[in-house]
Amino acid sequence: MSVSVLGRRPVVEPAALIAGLVPPPHFAEASFDSYVPDPDHPSQAQALAAARDFARPHQRRLRSRRGPGVGLYLDGGFGVGKTHLLAAIAHALDGRAAFGTFVEYTNLVGALGFAAAREALSAFAVVCIDEFELDDPGDTLLMARLMRELTDAGVCVAATSNTLPDALGEGRFAAEDFQREIQAVARVFEVIRIDGPDYRHRGSLDFPAPADAGALDAAAAEQGAARVAWEALVADLAHVHPSRFGAYVDGVRVLVIDGVFPLADQNQALRVVGLVDRLYDRDARVLAGGGGLETIFTAEMMRGGYRKKYLRALSRLESMVHAAIEHHRPV
After folding, report:
1. How many angstroms separate the CA atoms of 156 and 125, rounded?
2. Which of 35, 156, 172, 305 is the most exposed place for a label (fewest CB within 10 A)?
3. Please, what sign has the CA dihedral across residues 258, 261, 264, 265?
4. How far from 221 is each of 6, 207, 291, 323, CA to CA, in Å?
5. What's the superkingdom here (predicted)?
6. pLDDT tens string for the chain (331 positions)?
């Protein structure tokens, strides 16, 4: 049975936002034992050991409130296993860790208010923040204050990013004007660098040619398939809050897209990045026709301050496209 996404306007209650702070389906089985370090990059084994050590005190006993919380910051490129290790920390703590992306936490504060969000997160031993990034001054101030108050209350913080904490916001706004707040974030963390290529493709991006009409029709006939025109999808996302993108694609096993073309502006592009992340979290597959998905972000966008977000989205899109092709490959 096919599903429809266009026109969905999901409502997510505050309690559901808190309950949803768990590793997504893509990382439901992530553990320290299932992380396989690349022997050519010793920093991966070092990061695994650091993540285990970070989780171990919380596995042995309930968190003490007698001292401030500490932080672990996993920094590296795309596809080196940072999110896997972060999810492994959350799973090891068995309900005593909150897990969400940076944007999910900022959306949580928007939904609950700062005081209520801080109170809810203070109940956890560890707050895990995936894809930590600061895209504007407001988020800088908000997250710096939230993390400072959580760690003062004894909550520990683990985060992943591809930007060192003292460089957060670089290239997006006048970071020097917010240096005190940025440094407050940086002081929380022990930084662990993870090197290596993107495991999803172990090299440069390699998108297949756009799917033809027959392949698109076949994929659209699958159970759980949603078929949309690219132009309509991009327009519809403007009416959905990013905190609800996950609910927007719930139940979608394969997204079939007709008529892909380059995006017109940065707002469209950032909404598509958010959608791609939530599709990837849910192990969805993607098949597209028209222009190549590798062309959706313009050269100007790729030179700007959000370049790393776009590269991550392209890496994840490529993985989901290849998954769709493999799914239909004759045995």
Report:
1. 6
2. 305
3. positive
4. 17, 23, 22, 17
5. Bacteria
6. 688 999 999 988 888 889 999 999 999 999 999 999 999 999 999 999 999 999 998 765 545 555 788 889 898 877 789 999 999 999 999 889 999 988 889 888 888 899 999 999 999 999 999 987 765 567 767 887 898 899 989 999 998 886 645 444 444 434 444 456 656 666 778 888 898 887 665 455 789 999 999 999 999 999 999 999 999 999 999 999 887 899 999 999 999 999 999 999 999 999 999 999 999 999 999 999 999 999 999 999 998 878 888 988 999 999 999 999 998 776 4
CA distances from 99 to 61, 104, 125, 157, 291 (A): 20, 9, 11, 10, 35
- pTM exceeds 0.85, yes or no: no
Which residue is associated with the tokens 């100007």?
300
> DSSP for 243-254?
GGHHHHTTT-SE
Q: Which domains does the chain have, with CATH numbers?
A: 31-194 (3.40.50.300), 213-328 (3.40.50.300)
CA pair distance 327, 50, nearest whole angstrom: 36
